[in-house]
Amino acid sequence: MPYQTPFLPVIYPDEYGRPCALQFRIAFTSTTERLAIIHLRHVNQEHQSPLISSIVRDHLLNRILDVYLRGVAVNAIRLIVEDSETLALFAFEVDIHDYIARGNPYDATHITTGRGTFSERVAIRSESVIAGRACVHTAHAKPVRVPKDIADALR
Predict the structure, then answer these.
(1) Other C-beta atoms within 10 Å of 100: how many?
(2) Assessment of whether the complete model's pTM goes beyond 0.85
(3) Keyword set for this entry (predicted)?
């Protein structure tokens, strides 16, 4: 049984700090592995779109994760951006420096790299990454086609 919130307005700054607005909602898939979907719907073409700007996308994503999905495992969350006739899925990554700085669990291995220098390899278990406990970003993400199970949850 899928679940959807109604669309809610959200005010956000564009890359220059000017106020913008769009609508968002959260939906669940009805698949065995239930996913929470953040659906951003850009409705005013005069406002900067999260489809185009990773800065806007990241600001909105982190705010929604912190306020509405705090405590949910990040690997069970997907981001969908709608702009005019485009509907795209964006992957997001954890900001590793912020994750560690906030005292979240991780494993570190010291590695000798040569000439007496050392580096540290950090490993994080994906189920340990919880919404609201570290920032995420989409800077390297490319928009991809929305899978059928997620598209069905948004209908």
Answers:
(1) 16
(2) yes
(3) Plasmid
